[in-house]
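For reproducibility, we list the full input for the protoporphyrin IX containing FE complex.
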Amino acid sequence: MNASVISDTAFSTLIRTASHEQHAEAETTTFMGDMLGGKLGVEAYARYTEQLWFVYEALESGARALVDDPVAGPFIQPELMRLAALERDLGHLRGPRWRSTLSALPATEAYAARVAECARSWPGGYVAHHYTRYLGDLSGGQIIRDRAEKTWGFERKGDGVRFYVFEDIANPAAFKRGYRELLDRVRADDLEKQRIVSECKRAFALNTAVFLALGEEFPLSA
Ligand code: HEM
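The corresponding predicted structure, in tokenized form, follows.
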């Protein structure tokens, strides 16, 4: 990336533009397409939700130690936290013993391990993962919720899709604007910004790898 592009462009624009291609790739995986196209059973959705549990467990257990961090701290906001909602959804999808059925795909293990590593040792990298998940959930996540409600008959914004419902964010568009302002003020020099953008691309690739693995587990042609 050209040095002047980095210093002249708002960081929120930079990170969004730089990950655009990876976004399209993740969005158009067979698994996502089949799931959003209503072609898969609820078990595929449950398996996907289960994978998210591992990712958010790493993101949110790592968050506590970063609250006062000058780089990552401003991003950590209680209204974003998703683990409790995911656990409620899994209880609905898998029953009261859902915890004993949990298993991470190898691709999910790799994703969660990278998030945990960033949380432990690189706040800028943690910001990249934070952005990739939460801003996505607040955006395309709403499309997934709508399709899931229609395909598998979950109550609107109820059990099964609570992960996508940010109860404490009344105005997601305003929240996203505020989030982008935080990105624009991130305490990072140009080199670190470039590293964060690269980590964001890696975060998208880790998501795509999970979708590819899920696609193998739930092939349509079976
Ligand atoms: C089929 C699946 C998906 C759909 C339909 C979708 C759709 C969208 C849409 C419509 C937006 C734009 C919202 C806006 O302009 O405010 C968006 C933004 C975003 N999505 Fe997705 N998305 C999908 C999958 C993903 C995945 C897998 C990720 C990464 C884990 C992701 C991460 C993001 C991020 C980070 C943004 C915010 C971009 C920004 O404004 O900076 N999305 N998505």
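The pocket of protoporphyrin IX containing FE is lined by residues 16, 23, 26-27, 32, 36, 131-133, 135-136, 139-140, 143, 176, 204, 207 (CB under 6 Å). The two ends are 44 Å apart (CA to CA). Both points were considered when choosing residues for closer inspection.
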